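pasting for ref. prot 1 ->
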Amino acid sequence: MSTKQLQESPKVTTLREMLLASKGAIAAVLPQHMTVDRQLRIALMTTGSNKALLECSAASILQCVVTASQLGLEPGGPLGHAYLVPYKDTATFIIGYRGLVELVRRTGQVSSFAAYVVYERDTFAVELGTVGCITHRPYTGADDPGPILAVYAVAKFNDGSTQFDVMMKAQVDLVRKRSRASASGPWVTDYAEMAKKTVARRLCKYLPMSIMVADALETDVPRAEDPDFII
């Protein structure tokens, strides 16, 4: 959709006016390294390029932008921080894998935090017990590595210690099944990224938790619906 088409769309015009009217409030919650003009531009482009999002209420889209801004993440766009996903006539904010990694790194309590996808033809082994470790050698052949077998996340703390978690694909799919956006949005277009976020999110429950990370997890699954949540 061209810029001209965006300007001519009554729904985008309504959304733009609502966002501009809320510009001061959005700017007030943004961290210093982000600009409100970029937030609004990304929100308009993300919405304008998705017909289903255009059918959502402007108020719900605005709420997604506010939530993203409070977390210091972009509401869509090339960084993959978050997604705006339509659910009936309501836009839903879904944090992305990269957004979650960004928030965890900001705590300053981990030196690295990442998740990885394991494919069927990779060499992969997990050892638990008193000496927990993961061995993962990705398949390097020229052909297809096969379907996704599992995902895992690893956090390395500033003192050199590590914590990890592993989920098989069947476990990830159970999480996907419980999502209202299981049949649309990033679960369809970016399955591997959502699978990595799922295991990274679970590992977050065992990491030193900042208020911002806790708030981000709450946007995905409310604490009342997630009895395993640990703070």
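and prot 2 ->
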Amino acid sequence: MNLYERLKDCPRRNDQGEKLRAFKRYPGQVGLEIETECEKFYDIPEFKFWKTHVDPSLRGAFNQEYVLIQPVKFKQELDLALEEFNQHSKNIKFIKDSITTSVHVHLNFLNSTFRETGNFITAYALTENLLSHYAGDNRKSNLFCLPIRDAEETYKYCMEFFQNAEKKNYNGLWFNENNLKYAALNLSAFRNFGSLEIRSFRGETNIVVIKEWLNILQNLYNYAHTPNRNPKNILLDWKNKGLELLYDIYGDY
């Protein structure tokens, strides 16, 4: 049974105690947030796939975070969404290489099982340090995307997530945002969206570069959804194959 079916009637509240709306199920696998900064004001274009809002954590005279309105499918829809962003923003002079901007990826797990979610977190944890290096020098041990090696509480929350799932204590899956918001693997996003948020990647508006990062995460996502795979045999493969396991997970990447 997928997570949507298990959790659709489970009550959820935000950090202020307010009841959250019931999960909405989307067929798309990926959500995206692109943070941008600009020295000058500009008229925000109209989009089909995107919405925008101001993020107080960003700098520059005019900043906007471009957020996909809903999760899109890795194939076709994602390319269309990125191309729309590219076409509508190509004349905007974004500040490049800003250390305060980043690209956040939400991977939708409401269509997945607990086993597939466990596969993803296991394979992610094994390779997070490599992903962190790839994400950019200013993202290593960055306070806004701390990897497990620097935020050991993330490991404990991963354990707690599956211990509660095993007991069918689904209310134990909703973690306080203040405890996990700035982890590279943000488990608290699951309470709000049914997604796992990957916060590692540097600030970037070049859709070619962004797509490469998304391709890497798509390989990891697909690996986690391989039939008959489970966290235990992933760890056994790591023990027996060592670095060869990277080819199983990431393919050509």
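The radius of gyration is 18 Å.
The mean pLDDT is 95.
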